[in-house]
Amino acid sequence: MGRLNLDLDGLRTLSTGVALGSFAKAADRLGRSTSAVSAQLKKLEEQIGAPILRKAGRVMVPTAAGEVLLSYARRLLDLNDEAVAAVRGVDLEGCVRLGLQEDFGEIVLTDVLGHFARAHPRVRVEARVARNADLLGLVTAGRLDLALAWDDGFDTPHSHSLADLPLRWIGAAAHPELARTTDRGVLPLVVFDAPCLMRQAATAALDRAGIAWRVAFTTASLSGIWAAVAAGLGVTVRTEAGLPGNLCVLDPAMCGLPELSAAGLRLHRAGPALAPAVRRLEDLLCDALIRALPEGVDRGMRAHISDGGGSSAPREEREKRDAAERAPGPDAIRR
């Protein structure tokens, strides 16, 4: 009996659908029709000889067999993607200089840079974690090739918007009631040293709502923000990116806090044209952010990746392609 080769496209669909909590969203993100996604999942079930999904309310969740398959799928896909990157970039060399906000340190430093270093050992990566003004100044001076920064109204000549991330009130997970505990009716805030985009968003929202506030703790580091909030010194305003497990997003209505807007995320380039190694790191960075950030905030990143060779074909074209892939014959090659 021959060895069974699992369908990697199907495994990617399974992994994406479970991660998003919706296979309709997975179809859209992967550029496939819903009927093609259903066919892929059915093929996986036929291959392993057991159901991999079951209904739980209005969503589909993995069965016991599906959970086992999913754990292997993620590892297989990671290895597949790393192998493709390594082969395509076997001749890449040089240096890439990347700057980023602390919020994305865990996503970028542990995932993207580790992946990139293994796939492209001849490329040297220099990474710098800094605040917005420093990052933009370094890009403008040509000392950074790429910088991931919040949109604070100051732009560089070669940048584009990636996403708008909702701002959230953040409090201690162990003591969410602290958000309603004020010092003589004054809300204590934990914030970055001024100037700070999110500090301004918090105080402006409180002023509009007529809620008194005071700065209870300031720091120049995000780790200091997280520690002070966890200790119950006050609440802060950030996005959910990189949120530690000992903190939680507060419900504004329950805590008597005003609603907040969103923070724009921009990718800045040192120039209009990128060296191949820089472009490869940029693509990996955007892909990692798509996986890590909440669904609904990735439109700009998907469009950017499409510009670099991804697929954003209209649904009619995708459906024609999917139909061709399902048709029998030597030309029906699965992509």
Automatic annotation (TrEMBL):
Pfam hit, one: HTH_1
Biased composition (Basic and acidic residues): 314-325
Chain intervals for the UniProt region annotation (Disordered): 301-335
Domain HTH lysR-type positions: 6-63
Keyword hit for Ribonucleoprotein: no
InterPro entries, A to Z: LTTR, LysR_HTH_N, LysR_subst-bd, WH-like_DNA-bd_sf, WH_DNA-bd_sf
Keyword Cytoplasm among UniProt keywords: no
One GO molecular-function entry: DNA-binding transcription factor activity
Family that this chain belongs to: Belongs to the LysR transcriptional regulatory family.
Protein name per its UniProtKB record: DNA-binding transcriptional regulator, LysR family
